[in-house]
Amino acid sequence: MIDEDGVPAERVLAEIRELRALDRPTHGGRLFAYVYDPAVPGLDELAAAAHAGSAHVNGLDPTAFPSLLAMENALVGAAARLLGGGPGTTAPEVVGSVTSGGTESLILAVKAARDARPELTAPRIVVPASGHAAFAKAAHLLGVTLDTVPVDPKTLRPAAADVAAAIRPETVLVACSAPSYAHGVIDPVAEIAAAAAAAGVRCHVDACFGGWTLPYLRRLGAPVPPFDFAVDGVTSISVDLHKYAYAPKGVSVLLHRDPALRAPQYFAYADWPGYTMVNPVLASTRSGGPIAAAYATLRHLGDAGYLRLAAATRDAVTALADAVRGVDGLRLMAEPESTVVCFTATDPELDLFVLVDELTARDWHTQPQLRYADLPPSVHLTVTASVAPRVAEFGPDLAAAVAAARAAGPVRLPAELRALATALTPQALTPELVAGLAAGLGLDGDRGVPERMAVVNTLLDAAPPALRERLLVEFVSLLQRPRW
Fold this sequence. Notes:
- By secondary structure, the chain is an alpha/beta fold.
- Helix content is 42%, strand content 12%.
- Strands 1-7-6-5-4-2-3 form a seven-stranded mixed β-sheet, sandwiched between helices.
- A hairpin with a 7-residue loop joins β8 and β9.
- The longest helix is centred in the middle third of the chain and has 37 residues, at 289-325.
């Protein structure tokens, strides 16, 4: 890896280009997860230049680098204004912080709620089962108990009454989604926030996914229900700028209704001989690159640009949903109300995981979702503006992929393997057993990830969640090994 005499710059860049050729395409409108592409000419170059100009600026000390402080404050102000806060609103004192992503924003929302109640020895949070997994990560890291509320298998939403019933004296935070990532539906935020307020508990709206699009979709005529600071009882909101604000990766915003609510989010430490540490977020040193890139992106696109991108995305969602409706054996999990199309199979002979592989073979990269409780496995499409020019190609390819999946037939796990997946406990997994399973599934550090994942997904789908978690940890661990 480290050459004795170093490597010429062009050769290094060529190596990176060669490695990048193995990745899913980040542009072109054929990847329905992980990346957000507006297909705006020149935007990548602008963001890259802004990133390079501030890459070495350190967010650790705003007194040393006031440029970064100014850009962060501008990003927070833009997000607050979009989400019902700021002068002239019912939430005029909204404050916020720029974080590295939605997971950090959610962890900090939980931390602020927990640390605001220091008298509690066993704090808890209430989250719908459809809430992002980052809430579970936050609970795990912060020593908070996670109380999940089931969602209706038809509406895919929690009932506000069930959320209210789950609140205990030890509850420090209630969460809801606008929308949920998995299915793209908006929780009953107003009712949940009212229940939280009645119990004297904070209410966080996870709008990481939809916070930058729902206000624009509403302006375009979509019936978007209240979900932001216009709702009494909403105390904090998270919104990712590296999603539908189309900024490069590494930028989210966590907003609080007022400074007092944000205060417990900070970490300060002076009881050592070095500098007094004061951090509003989890990291201390932070590169200014992503923040400058987000600032440049928002300034360049502007309000009218975001409205145009939302309109293009809405039209793409409508066309994709129509394509799904037009294929026998598929049904939408929910009528689209944001930027997600999610569908499942109604034909037991149509294996969704085989279908995902067939779509991948046609250069459509989708996200399979495993069964959960009463919910069937499904296929998730995150739709961006870049999909709009390609959407007419999706319907015929979907029909062809369904026909190929039917011809191939469902994955049939060997009886002993299925029995193992349903009966094995996480504690019973040994390194030898994991290695044998991985080899049989084509997962190892030398070959990387197999092109077709239907067998792997079928095995994981058959396993209960705790075993899925352990299997995936072990499988990923096999892939993440040093390169000597």
